[in-house]
Write a structure and sequence with these properties.
The structure holds 2 protein chains of 2 kinds. By secondary structure, chain A is of the alpha+beta class. Chain A is built from 12 helices and 11 strands. In chain A, the strands form 3 sheets. Chain A has a 5-stranded antiparallel beta sheet. In chain A, strands 1-3-2 form a 3-stranded parallel beta sheet, with helices on one face. Chain A has a 3-stranded antiparallel beta sheet with strand order 9-10-11, with helices on both faces. Chain A is globular. By secondary structure, chain B is α+β, with helices and mostly antiparallel strands. In chain B, strands 2-1-5-3-4 form a 5-stranded mixed beta sheet, with helices on both faces. Chain B starts with 13 loop residues before the first helix and ends with a helix. Classes of the chains: A alpha+beta, B alpha+beta.
């Protein structure tokens, strides 16, 4: 690991200013950043430790939602009784990510800002446009079983690895950001991450020094919620395809549907056409099959991950059917 | 940069020295490669000058109920602080990337991967390692259960398995859910399925899993009764 200087931030404004300097980086849980520093992918010269800032609470908002402090651990958030009762899709997503040890340490903001696990991004001996812009994409033409089928570019086919972010996107969460110039702004979570385009080195729309301080959940939408994850191992593995789904059925028809997929794109992927076509449709198998087809209509496979297209399609159809049958 | 080797080299098996030397060689090669890349016109690039060692940070840790003050390179992980600076080699370095769980310790009562935690960020925290579970030579009930059920083969992952189990049983007692908990609102049961899921962050290359699960079930029943 390269050498760096270390400071512990005592307040949010100071942290944002310190981290806006060239070479500086925030560190909170550190489970992804330290991993990447050990393999020389991340090379910060200065670490701003934000782990002791007062951002560890989950509080009710005035409209019946929740405000989740950026430093709430993944384990604590999954265990929060309000999350378990009102946002089960989020609790399930969290519990399906990483291991218990990592969830105890990893934070809410860090989970959102974790980087792709594309093996070529991790391997400094190989070209990677995300790590070294302009060097090329080794996954194109390489081993690409885990890679994107939606929203990718010729520059990058990496996927975002978070489960939590997929559920938060389906819940229409917003993120609260503190800027180095001491302004606080809110952004829909769907606008936090970006597609790779020609600049895959940028995972998010954040500027240097901008600190995530909270994730705000609106009141839970009507309907049943579920998070489904398909992966190569039963536990402690990244998603091949995952799905956060929320379905409200009344009078035999779909009244409300939310679908967000993980493991398929550079960000949590919401198939808006599938959601739109579901509303008002009969709550039955052919509608759910059509939703599955609509969810992947723009998908493009790579030699090793073509299977993900059918997998995602069937995951959507099956999950919607299960949600409708259960309530 | 190599970590400063302080104190407890005698606890290390000889092959770890070889690992360090290899690591240094790899880093020098990497530095050389970067120099070539940055200045392609140069015939034979000199290795990058070694940067000055970073300022040390003072870290206060309570380890196994004993207070310590250490002066550390900021890069020192909690794992390396325990093994190389405090002479506690019970905690094992497996993958050093948070994937195997061999380095699991309890920090303020909560299990985590000490390889992915900077010691400087644990300033003021209380750490319990496998050595701290049997302070007066009397085995912890979880250790006894692992012995009774033969919950290991080579034993390298065992300190991590045991510390993880102690943390996991406390999580169960506090009613924390897991991915296999059917009813998120209910108290989770201490079933084999729950234990397998909750222990998935601890890999055993000898695959002693059936005996590990049996040991944990036994320890859990003992602690519950």
């Amino acid at each position: 690991m390269r050498s760096f200087t270390y400071e512990r931030a005592s307040d949010i404004a100071g942290a944002a200013k310190a981290a806006s300097q060239p070479g500086a980086s925030f560190i909170a849980g550190g489970t992804n950043l330290l991993d990447l520093m050990k393999v020389d992918v991340e090379r910060p010269t200065h670490l701003v430790d934000v782990s002791r800032l007062p951002l560890r609470d989950v509080v009710e908002t005035s409209d019946g939602g929740l405000s989740i402090g950026a430093l709430v651990s993944n384990a604590d958030l999954a265990a929060d009784s309000r999350v378990r009762q009102r946002y089960p899709v989020l609790a399930q997503a969290l519990l399906n990510g990483a291991s218990a040890q990592l969830r105890n340490q990893a934070t809410t903001a860090g989970n959102l800002l974790q980087r792709t696990r594309c093996p070529y991004f991790y391997d400094v001996a190989m070209p990677c446009n995300k790590r070294q812009p302009g060097s090329g994409c080794s996954a194109l033409g390489g081993y690409n079983r885990m890679h994107a089928i939606l929203g990718a570019s010729e520059a990058c086919i990496a996927v975002h690895p978070s489960d939590m972010a997929v559920a938060m996107t389906a819940l229409h969460a917003e993120v609260e950001i503190h800027t180095p110039s001491d302004v606080t702004r809110r952004v829909p979570i769907a606008e936090l991450h970006r597609l790779p385009g020609q600049t895959p080195e940028h995972d998010t729309t954040l500027a240097p020094g901008e600190l995530l301080t909270a994730v705000i959940l609106p009141p839970p939408p009507p309907g049943r919620q579920i998070y489904r994850k398909v992966r190569d191992r039963a536990s402690f593995a990244f998603a091949l395809v995952s799905l956060a789904a929320i379905l409200e059925v009344g009078g035999g028809k779909v009244k409300n549907a939310r679908l967000t997929m993980g493991g398929v794109a550079h960000k949590p992927w919401t198939p808006k056409d599938a959601e739109r076509e579901l509303v008002g449709a009969a709550a039955q198998a052919d509608s759910f099959d059509a939703a599955g087809q609509a969810a992947v209509k723009d998908a493009t496979g790579q030699p090793h991950n073509e299977f993900k297209i059918a997998l995602a399609q069937r995951l959507v159809a099956r999950t919607l059917g299960d949600l409708a049958a259960g309530g | 940069m190599p970590q400063p080797i302080v104190g407890s080299g005698m606890h290390e098996p000889p092959h770890s020295i070889t690992r360090r030397v290899l690591g240094i060689t790899a880093l020098v090669t990497a530095a050389f490669g970067r120099q070539l890349h940055a200045q392609p016109q140069q015939q034979a690039a000199a290795p990058e000058p070694r940067p000055a060692p970073p300022d040390q940070v003072e870290v206060h840790l309570t380890v196994n109920h004993q207070a310590h003050t250490l002066s550390l390179d900021p890069r020192t992980t909690l794992l390396d602080a325990l093994r190389d600076h405090l002479g506690l080699p019970g905690t094992k370095k497996g993958c050093d990337h948070g994937q195997c769980g061999a380095c699991t310790v309890l920090v303020n009562g909560v299990r985590l991967n000490s390889c992915l935690s900077l010691a400087a960020m644990r300033d003021g925290d209380s750490i319990v390692t496998v050595e701290g579970l049997a302070p007066d030579g009397k085995l912890h009930p979880v250790q006894q259960a692992f012995v009774k059920h033969d919950g290991f083969q080579c034993g390298y992952c065992t300190p991590g398995q045991i510390c993880s189990t102690v943390g996991m049983l406390d999580e169960l007692k506090r009613g924390l859910p897991s991915a296999v908990t059917a009813d998120l609102a209910a108290m989770p049961a201490a079933s084999a399925a729950e234990i397998r899921e909750r222990m998935s962050g601890n890999i055993c290359r000898c695959a002693a899993y059936p005996n590990i699960v049996a040991a944990i079930l036994d320890a859990q029943q003992g602690s519950a009764g």
